[in-house]
Amino acid sequence: MCNIAQTILINKLNMKQKITLLGTGTCQLQKHRTSSSILVQLEDLLFVYDLGRGTTQRLAELEIKQDDLQHIVVSHFHPDHVSDLVPFLHASCWSQIDPRSKNLHIYGPVGLEEQMGRILNLFGAGGLERDSFKVQLHEIHDTHFAIGKHSFSFINLPPVNNSGLKFEVNGKVYAFTGDSDFHEKEIAFLDGVDFAVIDAGHPMDEQIVDLATKTQVPTIVLSHLYRETDENEIRQKANQAGYKGDLIVGSDLMSFDL
Question: How many structural domains comprise the chain?
Answer without folding.
Answer: 1
